Amino acid sequence: MNRLRLAREQRGISQRDLGKAMGVSAATISRYETGERKLTVEAARRIASVLDEDWVNLFDPPGQNLIARIPGGEIDRES
Hints:
This protein has helices at about 1-10, 15-20, 25-35, 40-50, 55-60. It starts with a helix and ends in a 20-residue tail after the last helix. It is built from five helices and no strands. The chain is an all-alpha fold. The radius of gyration is 12 Å and the shape is globular. Helix 2 (about 15-20) packs across helix 3.
């Protein structure tokens, strides 16, 4: 989840502020960033929305096919 941390820090958003915008704790954001807690597609989309990022590009770098491993990860890359 280092891409998440990088995107968050590039925007000057703290874990606390991102968590507040999502209705979760800063500890939850930290766990997403370190991979200690798995993301759902819904959480990934909410995070990307707060960070003004395309959720597929943020969480599934080209060629990685990571989203297929997220519960509910069937996606339409055009969405």
